[in-house]
Amino acid sequence: xxxxxxxxxxDEQGAGGPGTPSSASASAAAPASTGQxxxxxxxxxxxxxxxxxxxxxxxxxxxxxxxxxxxxRPGTERGRPAKRDAAARAVRDAAARxxxxxxxxxxxxxxxxxxxELERLVRLLGRGRSVRLTGPSGSGRSxxxxxxAARCAGLAPDGVVRISGYGxxxxxxxxxxxxxxxxxxxxxxxERDELLARVRDIGAVVLLDDLEMGGSAxxxxxxxxxxxxxxxxxxxxxxxxxxxxxxxxxxxxxxxxEDCVALLEAGLGRPLTDEETAWAGDLRFASEGLPLRFxxxxxxxxxxxxLNHSDEDDDEEEPGVFEERPRDSGVVPLPTLAEGAxxxxxxxxxxxxxxRAALRIACALGGELPHHAHxxxxxxxxxxxxxxxxxxxxxxxxxxGTRYRLAAGVARQLEDVGYGDTASEEARTAARHYAWxxxxxxxxxxxxxxxxDAVLAALAGADVVAAAVLARTAAPAFAASLHWxxxxxxxxxxxxxxxxxxxxxxxxxxxxxxxxxxxxEGRVDRARAELETSIGLRGALADKRGTVxxxxxxxxxxxxxxxxxAASPPLRLEAPAAxxxxxxxxxxxxxxxxxxxxxxxxxxxxxxxxxxxxxxxxxxxxxxxxxxxxxxxxxxxxxxxxxxxxxVTRVAPVTPxxxxxxxxxxxxxxxxxxxxxxxxxxxxxxxxxxxxxLSPQPAPPAAPVPATxxxxxxxxxxxxxxxxxxxxGALTVVxxxxxxxxxxxxxxxxxxxxxPAVSSTPTTAAPTTVQQNSGNxxxxxxxxxxxxxxxxTPGASAAAPSPGRTPGRTPSRRPSSTxxxxxxxxxxxxxxxxxxxxxxxxxxxxxxxxxxxxxxPGTATATSPTTAP
Length: 869
Hints:
Strand content: 5-15%
Structural class: alpha/beta
Radius of gyration: 49 Å
Shape: elongated
């Protein structure tokens, strides 16, 4: 029997070379049956080197040293490819269908009870609408797609395109398959932008069988091809399309009782008996009317008829002396309802031995059945290629794209009865056979690409040594056939197998190929990582040729990175030129006064320059009223939100010595000291009272400041103020050091004899009177300490303390005596007034000297020193 009936010469070449089919099968079976790795017979052919165009690169697939990639040379750019005509599309469509099997042709199966669905699908596709045909496995979706393809042949300008979506979760490979079917562009794989631009012009009816994606991935496919109408065949478990996709839904249900009986009679070739009709009704109820179950049921009834007919022939013949098979006097009964619902075990037990061996191989490969040309080598029978037609006629196989695989549920049923016990051995045998076949020079890459699923399944089930060898030989073929999804999968599996096997050279090859693939697809970061890994491994092996190839590819990665950085420069975080100057908002200059010691809460520090180049330093007018502070380390002035814009001074930016917060803003709020005198203190208690006031008082509100001030004087006033502030800070540090040293010495030694008298009991002071202005009074003036009624002279104030003195505090933790100050007769004494403090964050320790102005005779106003924030 001619096993190549209906097959092209390319399939003969893929089976192992020219010659008769039987000799090719026998030569392939020899290495597979032995335990050693197979080697091709005869002198080896030349290395299979293929040159491709991948985007802007020229890719040379070299199976020996690794693929070489370089930019397209000037003048070698290809123009826009032409679309295939009707005859070329027919040839392409025939190549995308399952191969014709050797042996007697299989009779076609009628399409029953699908006329309404067929008319609806053709009508929607003719209007340019995309439809999703949903039905369970075995409901006849593929048969309905064949009928739709025959009815829609002349609807679209680019005809009907059939694509298999089995195993594809992303639309990339489907778009490349659509592009390769419509356009005549051999050895070319465009980059993504060019691919999207070309598939946008395709107007065809696309029949996508075995869809496995939905949601956003399906939306991307539909948006990329707006001129195509899709018929998507999927199972109910497949993810549904999004609501914005506007895809129609058509559901397939089971067949009715009459249709099930008609399908069973068509497969059996004769009318059913009453017993068989009743059995068919029960089977229809158990299987919900799935057509696949009745195709398998028709196969079981045919096998039953053959067994019963053979028994009748044996009864007519006279039994011989050398008869080995005992006679079975009984008639083979109808299958049970359980056998009809799960018929794989019964059907497999009645097929040939070669068919059962093929089922074991399919179970080991995850349901994938190798091409019928490989079965003689894998099984060890020269006529094993006819087993595929036998299994397909029984309903145990179903077509998927260009190949066959086990029907839904068959693999699980066979594994339950022991067909998967030898899975590891079968997978190892298949891996060794495919390693020999894919590496043979006579096998074209397109043939290897059509066998990609079986090769990947064998790779997954083989041991690490066989997997590394198979990946090394199959990877160049997948790359040359433009089946790059399988190329990436086999490279990753090979790299892992080589790592486990300790093959450093093979591991470097796989990483190099992964880097080249990532570079062709525009994944620059991934390409750099893979190529650097490959260069490092080859450097350890002193592989000069491989290292040079890797460095050339890495140079292209660097060029792509530079081009990408130039196309989209990174975000720069430098401040703009307009905001590089600091703006200081200050009040008009006030008369300089002696440096005022800082409060314990905020010790004075030297003047701090502006932190940010665009920081704004704000100072409230000195005469503006400030809230009272509570003495102690927790007291802090509250920042007044009112800011005067009387003078604006721009200063040069200062680079901070340490990193600070980007929101750093220096604020200075002047606070008038609680006790202010015109003469310097002469006693230790006066010094303590000025340095650490018990009850600082707020200053009265200040008069409004003119809105505009000439820029020249304001800039000069700002400079003088900064100089004065720096000098005041230095004097404050000196004064604090003197105070602390005196306080510590006074707590351990006696006061001097010629000094003022010291009393440990403070005197009682009367409350003070503070002048307030009514609402009709003119603007307020800065307050000063008013002279007493009796009048004092500078000499008297120097000899005796001023009235209203309270005991000063020492910075020492130990209690110390303070000088007693007795009030003069006729002079009102001042006492601290308790005011609720408002905590305020002060950010600098710079002392701010403020001046007081007279508010009127006979009035004493308490002032308090503070530090500018």
